[in-house]
Each structure stands twice: as C-alpha cells, then as structure tokens.
Design brief:
three-stranded antiparallel β-sheet, globular, alpha+beta, disordered N terminus, three-stranded mixed β-sheet
Length: about 200
C-alpha cells in the first residue's frame, strides 16, 4: 500500500492597488464628447465619398503591400464601394478570407458609425468570385425550396452567409428567410412560411 499525501493548495491573495483619480480628471470627458463619437446621422453618400477616399488612401499609403490606389465610389444610395487591386491584393484576402473579413469588419464599423452607410469591399475580385460560387450552390437549394415550400442551406461562413441571405430573400420575398446557429456555432439559413 502507498499512502498518498493530500495537500491543500492555496493561492496567494492578489492585492490590487486602488487607483484614485484626481477630482478634476473624473469628469474630464463630457457626455457631449461621447455623443459626438458614437451618434451620427446618416449622411448623403455623395457628400462623404471624397472624405472616405482620402482616409482609405491614407490608411494604406504606408502599408507593406504593393497595391494600386484604392478605389472608393458610390455603389448605391446606402453603400460605398471600396476596391483594392494590385500585385499584393490577394494577400489582403488571407487564408480562407480571414484578412478580408477583418478588413471588411474594420471598414464597415468605421464608415457605418461615422456616416451611417454600408460598404461593399472588393479585393482582387474576391467578392465577385464568392457571389458566383454561392449562386451556383444556391440554384438547387432554391429549386428544392420551391418544390417543398421550405428548406435550409449548409453551414456558411463569413461573407457567404450575407450573400446567400440577400439572394434567398430576393428569391423568396413572401417567406421567412433567416439565419440560425447550429450546435457548434456554425450559421445556416432557413427558409419557410411565416407563422400565421
């Protein structure tokens, strides 16, 4: 027989120093300054294009990528098109589109918060190729939904779910088309009749 020794392990208590700000510093940021950073009315797209173009160009002017000058243009009344091309444009997409997603998220949050507008990010025809791929995938899915009245997609990631959602909503304006999450967190689209 071996005797196992049991020890009670206690962690040393962390002592966190209390930080006290001087009375003046506590109220240094006014609520007006906060409102100016987070609340912006939607602006006319034609009024902001030049400003956005300058900012996007400045953002990538000193990057380590060899890129053509980014194009910023009106896509529709709600959306700014931002296009990247050039020798290293594909590097901006990244493996499995991870850099594309990150850049899209960054640009969308900035432009949507500041101007109330959406973006369409195109890098070396990545978005166009994704749209073509998802349209081919959706053709038999749409046919099945037309025959049975309802259906769902496979799990889709990133920009694919957005493209598929727009396509299915256009194909079935009279039906419920929404995004659902699976058990492992993957997202897919369901199409069925609205509950009456």
């Amino acid at each position: 027989h071996t005797i196992k020794e049991h020890r009670e392990v206690t962690k040393p208590t962390e002592v966190k120093p209390e930080i006290s700000l001087p009375r003046e510093a506590r109220h240094a940021v006014s609520s007006t300054a906060i409102d100016q950073n987070f609340h912006h009315e939607k602006r006319n797209i034609n009024e902001v294009l030049e400003e956005v173009q300058m900012s996007v160009r400045n953002l990538f002017k000193h990057s380590c990528f060899t890129l053509d000058v980014p194009t910023v243009a009106k896509y529709d009344d709600e959306t700014i098109l931002i296009e990247f091309s050039g020798e290293d444009a594909a590097l901006l997409i990244g493996k499995e589109g991870y850099r594309y997603k990150a850049l899209s998220y960054l640009l969308y949050n900035w432009i949507n918060l500041k101007y109330g507008l959406n973006i369409r990010l195109e890098i070396a025809e990545f978005l166009k190729n994704q749209e073509e791929m998802i349209e081919k995938y959706l053709a038999p899915v749409i046919e099945r939904i037309r025959n049975s009245g309802r259906g769902q997609t496979k799990i889709l990631d990133g920009v694919l779910i957005k493209i598929a959602l727009e396509s299915l909503r256009a194909a079935f304006p009279e039906k419920y088309v929404g995004i659902k999450s699976g058990r492992e967190g993957g997202k897919f689209i369901v199409v069925n009749d609205f509950n009456r």
